[in-house]
Predict the 3D structure of the following.
Amino acid sequence: MIFITLEGIDGSGKTTIAKMLKDSMTQKGFKVLLTREPGGEPLAEKIRHMILDHESQPTHWTETLLYIAARKQHLDKIIVPALKSGTLVICDRFMDSTSAYQGHARNIGMADVDEVQNIVLGSTKPDLTIFFDITPNEAQARLINRKRAVDRIEKEKSNFHNAVYEGYQILISEHSDRIKVVDARKTIQEVLTQVEFLVENTINERINRKNAR
Ligand code: TMP
């Protein structure tokens, strides 16, 4: 079935929309799996805890490899079997997060991160990636109003979040066929409408391609 990933800087609102998208696609009759990274599988959730724990002090490469290890576990155990069984998979963050956060903002190098991810992840790539566009300043203001505690990555300084945003802009320009941008500053309902439009387009394209064969 179809694999959709949601990306954006912290505070972009993608997690709220992810839940609403799951409900609306379920109502339309799709079998839907909503999952997230890092995590989405018992061992991957343990790795999530290790990465985001304030006590952890991974080197930049260790952090990168932990995210990718969690992803491999999640992909092989959960995502690939779900796609094979005809499920529409919506994943809150995936490989582009590692390219933007570790590759660009941590300065590992996007090309090196891509190389490792290509080896590890193989051919399973998202059919559609939706980027929730909001400036780092606006996102930061939202995070301040949020009730839950910030994690180790969220508490990074503003120049880190600016670099993450910049990393995403590079990815968007390099993968314009796959990554589509929605204006995340709009109301929740307006953002959801933009997202549903993109998802339905991708599903229709897939059906048309199948029928043309
Ligand atoms: P979340 O808040 O969206 O659940 O993600 C947890 C944090 O991990 C968030 O600050 C983004 C960060 N992150 C990376 O730095 N690299 C990655 O590959 C992923 C998936 C998340």
